[in-house]
Amino acid sequence: MIRIQVSEKRGKELGIVPSEFNHYFEVSYQGCVLDTYSESLGFGDFASYAVAWDANEKRIVAVNYAYNGLGGTDDNSADVDCTPENRAVALAYALPRITQRIEDEVEGDFYHEAHKIWSGKRVKVVKGRKFPIGAEGTVKWSGETRFGFSTLVAWDDGSEGWLATHNLEISNPPEYIRDQAIIDRKVAAAAKCFWNYR
C-alpha cells in the first residue's frame, strides 16, 4: 500500500484517523504494490516510486509517492503488499507485453548478428568507386582504423583490397527463423520482474 500525507482538511474530509504526530495519511493501492524503487534527480535528491496494479485502470502503474529534496515528502511510504490474486492478474496483463518485447529483441539481435561484417563472412560491394558494385569476396579483417571503420576483403578473383565498411553488405544473409525455445527462456526470466513491463 501507499501512504501519502494530505492536509488536515483533506484528512478530515476522508475520515482519516491522524497519526501520533497529528499527520493525515491517505492510503491507496492496498494489496496492490508489486515493487518500489528510487530515481536520482541529481545533487543527492531522489524520487521514490511504487509499482502497483491499478484495478480500476486494469494496468500496472508507477506512482511517485515521495521526494527527499527541499520541501520533500519523506514521511510518505509504500509497502510491497500485493496479494497473490492481484499479482496473478497483473502478470496476465504483463505477459503479452513481455512476449512481444522479447520477440522483437530476439529478432533484432539476429538481424544485427546476421548483417554484422566480420572475418570469414561473405560480402559484396554496394557503393563506392574503389571497387565494382556487386564485387564479392570473403572478409579477412574488419575493424576501426585511422581512416574509420575499414574492411580487408579477399576478392573472388584472388586479389585483396581495403575499403570502408559501410560500402559493404553481407552476401545472402540468412533468413530469420523464430526459435521458440530461446523466446520462452527469455520470457520466463523477464517474468520474474514482470512489473517492469508496463
Quick tags:
SH3 type barrels, 3 domains, 3 helices, 11 strands
| Uncertain parts | none
What is the CA–CA distance across the termini?
A: 19 Å
Number of strands: 11
How would you characterize the largest beta sheet? 5 strands, antiparallel
Write down the Rg.
Answer: 28 Å
User: Which structural class do the helices and strands define?
Assistant: alpha+beta
Fraction of residues in helix = 10-25%
| Silhouette | elongated
Strand content: 35-45%
Alpha plus pi helix count: 3
Strand order of the largest sheet: 10-9-8-7-11
Task: Give your account of this protein's structure.
By secondary structure, the chain is of the alpha+beta class. The protein has 3 helices and 11 strands. It has helices at 8-14, 84-114, 180-190, and strands spanning 2-6, 24-28, 33-42, 45-54, 59-67, 77-78, 122-125, 136-145, 148-155, 160-164, 168-170. The chain has a 5-stranded antiparallel beta sheet, with no helix packed on it. A 3-stranded antiparallel beta sheet has the order 2-1-6. A 3-stranded antiparallel beta sheet has the order 3-4-5. A hairpin with a 4-residue loop joins strand 4 (45-54) and strand 5. Helix 2 packs across helix 3. The longest helix is centred in the middle third of the chain and has 31 residues, at 84-114. The radius of gyration is 28 Å and the shape is elongated.
